[in-house]
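Entry under discussion copied across for reference:
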Amino acid sequence: MKSLRHFFWMIGLFGGMAANHLMAEEILLVTHEFRPYSWVDKKDDSYKGVSIEIADLLFEKAEITKKWRIMPLKRAYGYVKKTPNTCLFPLQRNQEREADFQWVSPIMINRFAFYTPLENDVSIRTLEDLSNYKVASYLGSGLKEYLDGFGIKTIEAIKDEVAANMVSLGRADVWATDEFSEPSTSKMINKQFSKKFVFFTSIGAMACHQSLSPQTIRRLQAELSGMYRRLEIAKIVRKYER
C-alpha cells in the first residue's frame, strides 16, 4: 500500500513538473510588417494588426507566455527555421514549407486575386490571359512559385506596397495580392485598383520551430479551434475589414 501511494505521488510530481514546464516555456513570436496583418505603431512601439490580435488572444487562452519581434519576412523565415522556441506568424502554409516547421493553423484563409489600376482597361479572365503581362507580388507570399508553374512572368518585391507601386508606375502590369490586405495597401500608396479575378486560396498559419514541445503545439491548436467555434476570430477579423 505504501509503495502504491509512493507511485501515485511520483506521477503527480512529474505531471506537475511537466505542466510547470509548459507554462514556463516562453515563445518568441516573429512577425513582419504587412498591414493589416501586423505592424508596429511608431507612436508607442506597440504591435498592431489582425494577426497580432489573434495571436495575443490565442496565447492568453493557452496560458503560454510570449514576446514579439519584427523583422523582414525572408530573414524571419531563416531565423525561426534555425532558432528554438520561436514561431513565425503569419506565414502562408504550402507544400514546399511543410517539412520546415510545426504548424498551428488555419489562422486565416486567404484568397489571392489579380489587380490592375482602375484606369487600366486590361482584360484578364484566366491565367492564360497573363502570358503577355508582367505580374508583381510580394516576397514570401509563395505566389511566384505558383505562377512560375504556369509560365507567368512574376517579379517579387520586398513589400506588398512596393509591388503595388510597381504596377502603379508602369514597371509591372498586374498586381497579385490577397483580398484582405488590398484595401490597406491601396490606401497606403493612394491608388485605386480594379480586381480582375481570384486565382488562388491559401492557409495563413503559425510556423513554429521543430524544437517546440508537442504538448505546446497541441495546446495552441486546441485553443485555436475553440476560438473558431466561439466566433472570436471572426469578431477580430471584422474590425479590419473594409
Summary: Residues 1 and 239 are 60 Å apart (CA to CA). The mean pLDDT is 89. DSSP finds eight helices and ten strands in the chain.
